[in-house]
Request: fold
Amino acid sequence: MCGIVGFIGNNDAKQIILNGLTRLEYRGYDSAGLSLFNQRYQNFDIYKDEGRVQKLIDSTKNAAYSNVGIGHTRWATHGKVNKENSHPHYSQSRRFIIVHNGVIDNYQDLKSQYLSNANFSSDTDTEVIAQLIETFAQTLHVENAITTTLKLLHGSYALLVLDANDPEKIYAAKYKSPLIVGHGESGITIASDLMALIGYSDTYHALEDKTFVVARRDDVKIFNLDHQLIDAVFKPIEMDAADTTKGEFAHYMLKEIHEQPSVIRRIVGNYYDYDASTINPEIIKSMRASDRIYILAAGTSMHAGLIGKQLIEQLAEIPVEVHIASEFAYQMPLISKKPFFILVTQSGETADLRACLVLLKKYQYPTLTITNVATSTLAREASYNLEIFAGPEIAVASTKAYVAQVAVLAIVAFELSAKTFDIKDALTKAALSIEKFLSSEKMDDLVRNFLTRRNCFFIGRGLDYYVGLEAALKLKEISYIQTEGFAAGELKHGTIALIEDGTPVIALISNPEINGNTRSNLKEVQARGAYTFKIVTSDCAQPDDEVVLDQVHPLLTALVMVVPTQLLAYYAALDRSYDIDKPRNLAKSVTVE
Ligand code: F6R
Reply:
């Protein structure tokens, strides 16, 4: 949540920061702002307003050329969405300019303890940081003023700080929120995500918590908060600029839906060397030694976790519990004697999961993260990490990361099992089935007929029920239609009261054994006026079914069944002319609890 980018070097800072903010807009888009050094007036200009990065691009057209600056795109936490609360914020004399991602829990206490005489121009926690630095800089060297401030903060932060008295430096610091330092020929770029560095940096270093950075045009030094130099290793950036563009597609979401077959193939390629699994054997050993596996996650990742539970229980016969991270962290259930924890998280930065991990580490439980970002905080802090290799997912509503999480969970489940089938082949067939469906899909026409109501239901049993939960979330997120994913047999126990003439009910059917049961439930809602729609695999198909997918391995049906539902959400949002890649009120990386 919130994206920050800073640049210092021998290039156009405005361009680099605006490009970076555009790539980071998935992290929040309530407001955008930028600060650039103005040679003529020897101070930092500030441009900011509520709204998207495009508005900032327009308003900074005539900004003075600068080689140093910082920028921000906001997902509001403290204070309304308005110009005053937009970043960058500044200290009273405007000496210190700051952008911040995170939440400072004790900002009111700090305000009353240290800043009772200061004038504030916003309601944000961030401005308190700028004012504190200015207060301490009256008596301390600027670097000490910053680290003294940092030591007082409770909460989370990724910060960039400019000092108008010394425009040849950017200061940065990180605790809990992500921050990456990039090094390139033209200078130093510091940003919340690697994506903002592509094209400007050749190497990067993902900062550790409680580090403090001093960046100059051609040099960057990283310290701990006691000013001891850290020997930071910079790794080459392997991401391609094409990964961050929409290519031939109208939206990132559509592009990412179409990437799913290649993501599955990439996962197979990365996790198998011929028939040998490349997964660290210690992970499998530690899981096998456990008496119960706990999967913790949020949102879409939690839905992937539910599929993972079924796969692990059926293939490996180890009991699995799935918990919502934000509940687990503060209401920890009774834990078995030898637990193993899997934290499923695309971003690897979700604050609710971080709270869980802190707790799990306290008890020294073994933990595995399944993430899309190997450099992320959770990936680095857990005992083990498995990457999902989905590539950058820019649409806020997740599609390919979900499929990738399910595919990696399937591989883990398979590696825990007696290996009675060929997982590589099964996954490859799933990729083919998705590809075949995508090459001839007509979801646009199908959706127009019936998604005209304020509410909608997905029903299914077993794995299809779990896919229905994800399908419902996707439709809610981007079309704002109130949707519920429901266990097909459960609807009649109360919720069927909501079915009216024309209420859309979408059935997901991929298991021949319970095909008839789900179809009976469809009849029940049809009798009450529901408009029904079926997404099925070929082994379950009947003549009038609207979407029929090629049959895949019975444990991998979620991989294919979810795809038509993603498109259904996409076209419903498109029909309503909504902003598909940036739905209202959301942000991709949820770094607040
Ligand atoms: C919805 C979506 C979210 C995330 C959730 C957890 O499309 O992507 O529900 O799954 O916010 O985020 P991660 O997976 O990064 O922990």
About this structure: The chain is about 35% helix and 25% strand. Residues 261 and 431 are 4 Å apart (CA to CA).
